[in-house]
Amino acid sequence: MSEDLVAVRRPTLTQVAALAGVSLKTASRALNGEPNVAPETGRRVREAADVLGYRLNGIARELRRGGTSALVGLISGDLANPFYSAVASGIERELRQHGLQLVTANNDEDAVRERALVDAFLERRVRALLVVPSGEQHQHLDVEGNHGVPFVFLDRAPDGLAADAVLIDNAGGGRAAGEHLLGHRHRRIAVVADLSRLAPQRARIDGFVSAMRAVGNAAWEPYLRTEVHDARRAEQTVRELLDLRLPPTAVFTANNRLTTGALRALRGLADPPALIGFDDFDLADVLGTTVVAHDPMALGREAARLAYERVAGHRGPARTIVVSTSVVARGSGERPPR
Amino acid sequence: MSEDLVAVRRPTLTQVAALAGVSLKTASRALNGEPNVAPETGRRVREAADVLGYRLNGIARELRRGGTSALVGLISGDLANPFYSAVASGIERELRQHGLQLVTANNDEDAVRERALVDAFLERRVRALLVVPSGEQHQHLDVEGNHGVPFVFLDRAPDGLAADAVLIDNAGGGRAAGEHLLGHRHRRIAVVADLSRLAPQRARIDGFVSAMRAVGNAAWEPYLRTEVHDARRAEQTVRELLDLRLPPTAVFTANNRLTTGALRALRGLADPPALIGFDDFDLADVLGTTVVAHDPMALGREAARLAYERVAGHRGPARTIVVSTSVVARGSGERPPR
DNA sequence: ATGAAAGCGCTAACAG
DNA sequence: CTGTTAGCGCTTTCAT
User: Fold this and answer.
1) How far is Cα B92 from Cα B155, in angstroms, rounded to an integer?
2) Considering just the CA atoms, what is the radius of gyration of chain A in Å?
3) What mean pLDDT comes out for the span B200-227?
4) CA of B312: which chain A residue's CA is closest?
5) CATH number, domain containing residue A200
6) The HTH lacI-type domain covers which part of the protein (chains A, B) (predicted)?
7) Chain B partners of A307 at a C-beta cutoff of 8 Å?
8) Scanning every residue of chain A, which has its alpha carbon at the shortest distance from the alpha carbon of B90?
9) B120-141 b/e (C-beta count within 10 Å ≥ 16 → b)
10) Positions in chain A short of pLDDT 70
11) Mean pLDDT of B111-122
12) B20: domain CATH number?
């Protein structure tokens, strides 16, 4: 890992004080804008600091002030995914209001790495830790062992431990998607979903299923495809579905990547099936793609808010906020069955 | 700003040592896996640490080790913009190889805020600082005053100071866009560009102009529109261009946001003008949008690499890496003039 | 194999 | 208004 990194010695407050001909504490006062410093003294100190190129050592300050930083950690999937980057953006904006700084890390969707990141962040004494967990098991994120550093879960409910969480109404969104397609007289509806070990995926499917049950429709069942993890496989899966002897008349894709794949498969088709995708995305309006929309930036903002409240001293039981979803009709989801 | 934040006292190494019945230093050795610790002693120390829920204090360690952290700062625009999030993702992946952690901050495209962020990062003793500068003036980012913390500029060349930089071949890309449209027999070509105070925007236009000059075409000149800063205004600008008595037959949009706006304006048109956009984007393939593509993730990766080399001791003059661009033809840029 | 003492750079507490 | 003393939690000599 880290090799022979070059250390840089910077001037210290002691040196500034010496140059200014005052004591350490006076220099500290002057530079921190504390009261009880003669104007002339303050000027001399600032000048000395300038000459030396002095800059406060935040590490030393933090240690002295109680060993806790102004950093908040975020552990999530790759920022290259617009969902995660929107969440990060929402978090960053909210934290900034309170003088806190965001540190991001990518869990590679791997529980072992995630665990290591949690340790590293706690050692770095982050004020709070926000996590979009990679998998099912969350013992490695247990709050007991971390002495009061608040955890907030995003997108996935904490499993087996009490912690604040901000979730999307996945089941409601899945049900709405199903109802929307049923309302346009579809019965043979394909569902293309990601790994079933991911709770949000299961919830979206469950919601969809409940909509089907409500009207006694079972014609969708042969068209369920799960464990589709990227756009390329989604594209292929949709192609295969359309090649069936009795193809589905509509497709429901359970996240943004899968919707992308489906759009590629449907591109140029004379008579494409209806399509509704979970997660809104840039240019969906131009493409005329109907989606189950929600606000990932709000997700991040709310999570940061919960974390801050804990940092600021809020006690009390774990809270859960659910961000609502809504169907945005743009054409693709309103195509009738053929 | 920060209010009455609750401090959390965690167990210290001294407490672990006391519980294990050994000295401070022995506990330190055991927990850090240093040699010369009796197996039985090591076991006792680890057990004590476990019981107390001990976690190393990284702040204290960093202070003792020389006051420099394992953090690298990134100051850029909002992560909600896919360009910046792709850059951040590329940086993060590269830094990780070297055990370094990314801290991100949003400059709000404001020089004053940017300046404050630089100070804050330097106080936090980041190992290196990567900046996508908001504006023209970079004195506030001067390397002299920062005592050897390496700076790397992304996307915009450092103005008036020597620092490593990773740039996009903006002029080359602009020229290629112009040549591409000329090659498809367009002469009345509109250019929709962002704020002209941004050097990359000017370079893209300059490149485009050089392509026009090379063939003696001046018919594009009435159709230049700059200071278009968001998708909404781009949409409106393109609408206005098409409403002209003699409208342009092609449009060149100088960044991803503006391309988005143009696509909205062109949506549903029976006989749309040709379109080529700077920056590639998700689903451009589905939309059939021709672009001047480059690799923002590579931009981040290279910047992180340069920074790491400096951190690892590389001396020598400032280096500049230029990331190349290429035209990706997908249909919109190949429509003939009408 | 283990321990005692010193000190990283700063701020808090208490004098003067 | 200014200075002195202590110590945050850890690693680094240097002894033992």
Assistant:
1) 17
2) 26
3) 98
4) A5
5) 3.40.50.2300
6) 11-65
7) none
8) A80
9) bbbebbbbbbbbbbbbeebebb
10) 1-8, 136-147
11) 90
12) 1.10.260.40
